[in-house]
Amino acid sequence: MNERVEPVYLEEKLEEIRADGHLRYRSRSLPTWCPGCGYFSMADGLTVALNRLGLDNKDVVVVSGIGCASRFPFFVNTYGFHTLHGRVLPVATGVKIGNDALTVIAVGGDGDAFAIGAGHIPHAARRNVDMTYLVFDNGIYGLTKGQTSPTSALGFRTSSTPYENGDMPLNPLLMLLSYEASWVGQAYAGRPHHLTDMITMAIEHKGFSFLRILSPCVTFDKTDNTYRNLGMKVRDIPEDHDPSDRLAAMALAMEEDHPALGLFYREDRDTLGEVMQDAARKAQAMNLAPKGL
Amino acid sequence: MNKAGTDIQFAICGSAGDGTIAAGDIMKRAAAAMGFHVIAFDVYPPEIRGFGKCISRIRVSSEQAYSLKEQTDVFVSLNDGHAIPHVGEVRDCGAVIYDDHLIAPVPEGGHISAHVRPAQIPYGLPIRQVSEQATNSARSRNIVVLGYVAGLLDMPPEPFHKVVNQKFATKPPAVAEANIKAFDAGFEVGRKVFRLDDVEVGSAPEADRGEAVMMTGNGAIARGFLEAGIQSYFGYPITPATSIMERLAVELPKAGGRFLQTEDEISAISATIGAGFAGSRAATATSGPGLALMTEMLGLGVMAEVPAVIVCSQRGGPSTGLPTKTEQSDLNLAVFGGSGDAPRIVIAPTNVEGCYRCAGMAFEIAEAFQVPVILLIDLYLSNRYETVFPSGRNVFAPKPRQAPERREGEEYKRFALTESHISPRALPGDPDMMYTATGLEHNELGKPGDVLHMKMNAKRHEKLKPATRYPGLTTCKRFGAEGKVDVGILGWGSTFGEILEAMFEAQEEGISCSAMKVVMLSPLPEEELRAFFDDCEVVLVPELNYQGQFANLVSGALGRPVVRLDRTCATPMAVADILAEVRRLASDVNEPAHAAAGGGA
Questions:
Q1: What is the Cα–Cα distance from B251 to B12, expressed in whole angstroms?
Q2: Within a domain: residue B245?
Q3: Residues B283 and B423 in one domain
Q4: Which residue of B has its CA nearest to A64?
């Protein structure tokens, strides 16, 4: 207890951070999130992950929809496309098909993903588009100042549910596991190092990788998803969990009271790009006549 | 319009499943193979199988024609119940061909022979019997009757044989053989009956523009896209645009391109914009209901200055409307649809050849102006066949791209305000020019802070103005008399064919008139339009919608009055309707007193 703590000097720490190199993935725009927002650790996590993977800034495209999380592309120094509410996945699919050499990262919040954009998730997942989808899930609409979202808990009071939320919350992991996503994982904004590892793994995966990131909204949610509550609930994924066992992953996903952090499921199968290359080969071989003449 | 040489309209009417459309298809391809100009349009029911009415109408001429004729010369019934209401469209001394050996009694008036006018010439033959004798099946009635027509009109059988063989090339050889037998059996019968001497198929004109290719408007768009080096296509099935998607599903992978059927139209346009952002030549095609879903993303394309090509083939609306009937009622949606001031380029070809050329140019224009381009056609243009003379040369191939030059030490300004209002565009993968495109209003860097809303709005509008003079694209064109005229007819889209036919007829009647087609609807070629209005005493705008959408667009932009001719008849506009209106207006111009008394338009 009386051991002397080595002091950390700001100057040295800054030097260390600069030497690490991940700052070259930061843009000059300062994030517009509220102080204390869980999204800061995701921004750090992504820049560190890009640096670890040694990806060139010019070859990365971060695509987003609309919402607090979707402001993300402005804060990273890569190509970015801040699109429409709910349309991040089809736009990101177009970017990837448009130029296969790009690393495509789609980001968005829970409203963008599971409300207005929910119809696009199964299709991006089943097509196995080679991209990473980071969903920052804080269970609330922050940018419109605090309304209920599809992942808000039952009984949650917001400006749009003054008499308590009565809609069953969705289970995003269970959805993605049944949508044929080839990589499904979960992380928590309060564990930044683990989060960074998970983002790195998700980007490395060949195919559609879905990472749900639990986060508090420090401004509009003082009762449910707070750092304190989330920190007490989350747990490490059991060591004996086999990520190739989809049923086990689904069972784990259903234990919502104690969200497990880690890799739920992974499988290797052809990506959309590979399916299209295959179609091109078949087209050459078959030389089909078009319908009509 | 009277033309020198051959000008025959052939129609075949039957029930879905009779092979009506297939017979028409063979006829038009054979005529095109003989070197004639062909215009053809099929009418079919929305149901896939059942008892709906199908009609295939084919105009074969030695000179270029612009629309179908009002009256048919040779009419074939494969189903009297459906055909009887159409006997009236056969002209005097025209032929009505039907089966005169029925297998079951018909109620009084149920047989077509009771409806043939004395001036029309009836040709009854045992179609079913001939088919059964030739192929042991009644299913070849459509081909028998085709042979009969060829025999009757002294057309050579060889082109028909060739087309039949091509059509059934992928089936077992017995299929083509049976069909040729059926054709020959009908041909023999047709040669032995008395001549239809009022209709003559002369020889075809010498082809001087290279080889003619028969294609539909949709086929022409797919071909134009392929020649322009389309790289990715995203689509969702919808009548009448689906065949563009089906054609590209086959052809695009062959050309090394990428094809994806998306989960809905929103996804189709989103992926098209995404691919355009990444630098790919990307397109999608839809109809009115799909375009309505796409408008939000279209606005993003305008705001983020992303090139994309969207085909909209209009059908009757609103809502699900008339999926298999033509209309021109999505002009407002195409030109104005979406939130805010969202200027885009809208190009509306007027014939099949135009579909091919506009589709070929669309990517280049979208890239030059960094904006979504809508190709606005309609069901009549999508599905009608015409002979087209493709360029043969590689005129639409993409030109090499020039990456923007970056000044050392300066941040790349994706939305730099320039003299031409167009900012050099970097693509993902270009070094040191990383930027974020956004639907938020932004500054020159593309950042949503310190926005320049007024300047950026002006930029997005002003940059499109030179599009009306884009080299290689006809954005408007005047036909008929030059200089001052009594009546000007202003048209857009498929209706312009009927307008031209009406205008030529009016000229023959001695009416001073002229017609102008407007191909670029947004931005409008205002200067040319003003000159046209200055030359015309009165301007008539015929179009297939209730509100007069194009008339509103033009008179609003120019502040000039127009006379409207709006029809929502679910069919192409009748040449006679336009002609009647032109006559009325011409007499009003020349006899103002009469006009005053009659109340005018």
A1: 31
A2: yes
A3: no
A4: B438
Work out how many domains chain B is built from and give that number: 4
Q: Chain-wide mean pLDDT for chain A? A: 95
Q: How far is CA A227 from CA A17, A137, A145, A230, B8, in A?
A: 26, 13, 19, 5, 81
Q: Is residue B156 part of a domain?
A: yes
CB neighbours of B107 closer than 8 A, spacing ≥ 6?
none
Instruction: Mark whether B219 and B320 lie in a shared domain.
Output: yes
The mean pLDDT of A19-40, rounded to a whole number, is: 92
| Model confidence pLDDT, tens digit, residues B56-101 | 999 999 888 999 998 999 999 999 999 999 999 999 999 999 999 8
- A263 contacts A243 by C-beta, under 8 angstroms: yes
- Nearest CA to A129 out of A121, A138, A119 is that of A121
- The DSSP H or E segment spanning B37 is strand B37-43
Residue A212 in contact with partner chain B when CB distance is under 8 A: no
Residues B153 and B228 in one domain: no
Contact between B266 and A289 using a beta-carbon 8 Å cutoff: no
The pLDDT assigned to B405 comes to 87
> Are B23 and B169 within one domain?
yes
Strand ranges (DSSP E) for chain A? Answer: 60-64, 79-82, 103-109, 132-137, 140-141, 147-148, 183-188, 209-214, 235-236, 260-266
Separation in Å, CA of B164 to nearest CA in chain A: 12
User: What CATH code is carried by the domain that includes residue B329?
Assistant: 3.40.50.970
Kindly state whether residues B423 and B275 are assigned to the same domain: no
The encoded tokens of residue B466 equal 């030179």
CA–CA distances in Å: residue B576 to residues A133, B151, B380, B501 = 60, 32, 18, 9
pTM of the full structure:
0.93
Section B157-162 average pLDDT? 95
Question: Given this model, what pLDDT does residue B12 score?
Answer: 97
CATH code 3.30.420.10 for A10-286: no
Is B259 in Cβ contact with A276 (below 8 Å)? yes
Range of the domain at B426: 404-470
Hey, of A57, A72, A95, A281, which one would you mutate to test binding to chain B, going by the most B CBs within 10 A of its CB? A95
User: Which of B327, B360, B387 represents a domain boundary (last residue)?
Assistant: B387
Both B79 and B42 in one domain: the answer is yes
Q: What is the CATH number of the domain that holds B562?
A: 3.40.50.920
The answer on pLDDT for B51 being more than 90 is: no
Residues 6+ apart with CB under 8 A from A78: A25, A50, A57, A58, A60, A61, A62, B434
What is the number of alpha carbons within 13 Å of residue B579 lying toward its C-beta? 18
Q: What is the pLDDT of residues B12-21, one digit of tens each?
A: 999 988 999 9
Determine whether the interchain pair B297/A87 forms a contact, defined as Cβ–Cβ distance below 8 Å: yes
CA nearest A115: which of A145, A152, A82? A152
- Clarify whether residues B80 and B151 are in a common domain: yes
Which residues of B fall within a CB distance of 8 Å from A73?
Answer: 436, 438
Q: Please indicate whether, in this complex, the C-beta atoms of B280 and A61 are within 8 angstroms of each other.
A: no
B274–A98: do the CB atoms touch at under 8 Å? yes
B202 lies in some domain: no
Count contacts between A and B (CB, < 8 Å). Answer: 169
Question: Which region holds residue B19: left if phi is over 0, alpha if psi is between -120 and 50, else beta?
Answer: left
Average pLDDT of chain B is 93
B150 and B36 housed in the same domain:
yes
Q: Which of B470, B489, B516 is the last residue of a domain?
A: B470
Instruction: Using CA coordinates, name the residue in chain B closest to A123.
Output: B263
Considering the domain boundaries, does residue B514 fall inside one?
Answer: yes
Nearest to A290 among B250, B431, B447 (CB): B250
A101–B contact, CB cutoff 8 A:
yes
In the three-class reduction of DSSP (H, G, I as helix; E, B as strand; rest coil), residue B486 is classed as strand
pLDDT band at A291 (very low <50, low <70, confident <90, very high): low
Q: What is the C-alpha to C-alpha distance for residues A17 and A25, in angstroms, rounded to an integer? A: 12
Q: Are A94 and B232 in contact (CB under 8 A)?
A: yes
Distance CA B378, CA B494 (A): 7
